[in-house]
Specification:
Largest sheet: 8 strands, mixed
Distance between the termini: 34 Å
Oligomer: single chain
Number of helices: 11
Strand content: 15-25%
Structural class: alpha/beta
CATH architecture of the largest domain: 3-Layer(aba) Sandwich
Number of strands: 10
Strand order of the largest sheet: 1-2-4-3-5-6-9-10
CATH topology of the largest domain: Rossmann fold
Order of helices and strands: EEEHEHEHEHHHEEHHEHEHH
Shape: globular
Number of domains: 2
Radius of gyration: 18 Å
């Protein structure tokens, strides 16, 4: 289905249910079907709304943006209005977690609980080299036969490859007239979205969030690299400023944990729903 955003048209998937609504926001270069494995485990328990955020999936892709977090969060507000959701538990993964945090900060009366999965709680460190960061985070540019793409994805899937995972991941890619598969998100759009993320100030944003806030870091069991240390320090820094902090570190989880452990993520969302209901009681 299509829903309006703030000056753009967004593609969305809805699952019916009773109780507290949930909005699901994917990460950079992903799309709404990323959430299918989690949504299937929540089906019927709550109304669910998953969006292709601007530039992604089947949504509009304005060449000149904007793709800053405030604009993307405004899309969420308009989309919720369009489907008559006054309030919701808002769940974001990676870049989507920064979008969710921005929404929660700017619309505190509409966010019942904020769930940030491996994103949304980190700010680039002081003095970081933006140009070097942009270069390091450039997406890979490739074109390959579809069967080779599937073989590559299968080899990198931590929990094994099946039809459910394929339906969640393959819409990230498209096959061109030359018969080769590529990422659907164009390189230039990817970099515009990345610039918006690099501008994100987690400290300033999360200090304005009033609802229960779940911050989940996915940590390798044996990682001791700079990024893991930065995430750990970020969690320690933001926890005291959260009005209602719920901070978790999942050892052994990969970044795309909704695909790796959909049952665990669904359980987290159920808990966030219960948490929100308790706050309202």
């Amino acid at each position: 289905m299509a829903v309006p955003g703030d000056g753009v048209r967004l593609a969305a998937t809805r699952w019916p249910g009773a109780g507290t609504p949930v909005v699901l926001l994917h990460g950079l270069a992903s799309q709404r079907r990323f959430w299918n494995p989690v949504a299937s485990r929540l089906a019927g328990s709550s109304p669910l709304l998953a969006l292709d955020q601007r530039g992604h999936g089947d949504s509009d892709r304005p060449a000149d943006g904007p793709y800053d977090l405030q604009s993307v969060a405004a899309d969420v507000t308009v989309a919720m209005d369009a489907v008559a959701l006054s309030r919701a538990v808002v769940v974001g993964h990676s870049w989507g977690a920064a979008v969710a945090a921005t929404f929660a900060a700017e619309h505190p009366q509409r966010c019942l609980s904020l769930v940030m999965i491996d994103g949304g709680f980190s700010t680039p460190p002081a003095g970081f080299d933006r140009a070097a960061a942009r270069k390091r985070l450039e997406p890979p540019r490739f074109a390959m036969p579809p069967d080779e793409l599937v073989a590559m994805l299968r080899s990198r899937s931590p929990g094994g490859w099946d039809d459910e995972l394929a339906s969640a991941v393959l819409p990230i890619f498209e096959v061109g007239d030359d018969g080769l598969a590529r990422a659907r998100l164009p390189f230039d759009t990817h970099m515009q979205v990345l610039d918006g993320l690099l501008d994100f100030d987690a400290t300033a944003t999360l200090s304005r969030v009033q609802c229960p806030t779940w911050a989940v870091s996915c940590d390798s069991l044996d990682a001791d690299d700079d990024w893991t240390a930065h995430k750990r320090e970020s969690l320690e820094r933001i926890t005291p400023m959260l009005a209602r902090p719920r901070v978790l570190r999942w050892g052994g989880a990969v970044h795309d944990v909704p695909l790796q452990w959909p049952d665990l993520v669904a359980g987290l969302i159920r808990t966030a729903i219960t948490d929100a209901q308790t706050e309202l009681a």
